[in-house]
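INFO worker-7 received task bundle
INFO bundle size: 2
INFO processing item 0
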Amino acid sequence: MIRNSPAAHAIRLLGDRWSFLVIRDAFLGRTRFDDFVHTTGAPRSTLTKRLNALTERGVLARQPYQAHPPRDDYVLTPMGEDLYDFAVSVWHWEITHGPKTAGTTVPDRLRHRLCGQAFDPVTVCLDCGAPVLPREVAYRVEAEQIADADAALNDGSPQRRSRPPGPGQVPGDPSMLQAAELIGDQWTPLLVSALLLGIRRYDEFQKELKAATNILADRLRLLVEAGVVRRIAYQDHPVRYEYRLTRKGRDLYPVIMALHRWGERWLVPDAAVGLHHHCTDTPLATATVCSYCRHPLKRGDVTFKVSVPVR
């Protein structure tokens, strides 16, 4: 079910450290290859592949700014701009739970032009207006529409998680590196999705995600070390553990919801896996709104200041 969800399709496209950091930079106004190299720390060849992939899938577009030699800006398309809910949800999670890193360009506060107030992003149900909580959302599966997603998640997309250097060793902009470590991966967001659905045990994760044992063990360890998940023994002989989200982990729910919503709009509009809120029997429709005035957030209506100039 999770592997067939719109969020899983979005994760296939964006679930890579370097792609995640490119999207971060694009929303900070960066557009040029050399700036991406500097701020992400990505090898030039790797960055070229990620920019090409994001361009081919319609998230970015090239805009020439120099003819001799030819040079292009990489700018967000309407499809890319629609990731704003995802970007602002990641920002809120990182500001709430991430380390305070010198040299970051991520603002401490966002301000909404429509009401003039500093705000937090809130994901709400468009039918009832209430904040969307995991326990109030049900997944529904149209069995006849489900296709086997195993091949899709093993199509050559990056799956091996490389360990990046620490924040003090990363070139350029160290903003959102914790989020990049957790979300910029093919498997970790799927594990968080499973945990949000109430799946807690190792064999249940294997059955639902069909992840290799070494990948599953590595990602669970990463989530425990990051404080997103806690491990609790439920059996003594032999010792068996289940995994439960901490508050830090539960606060990733708006990020997963934003990926689901974006994947539903742009990648799989006829998805077999749908969400339903407890207030209605119709498919869940959500928006990310200002916590002060409750208007939906748009990139052009949000202002911020950064402590380090954007290159």
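INFO item 0 finished
INFO processing item 1
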Amino acid sequence: MAIEMFSLLLTGLGLGLLHALDADHVMAVSALSNRKPSLQRTLKFSANWAIGHGSVLIMLGLLF
């Protein structure tokens, strides 16, 4: 049972990384975060983006 769960988690991580590094995703993040470049603004934008993505995953995990 543990190896199946580990395989599933590893597959999810791999697909998540593939999604995050896809060209259209990188361009969208770059375009949205490039309005007024500063380290603080970029970190805040990145944190909000990550919280949004993570909260959806947590909700789906709780449902299923």
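INFO item 1 finished
INFO post-check item 1: The chain has a mean pLDDT of 84.
INFO post-check item 1: Residues 2-63 form one domain.
INFO worker-7 idle
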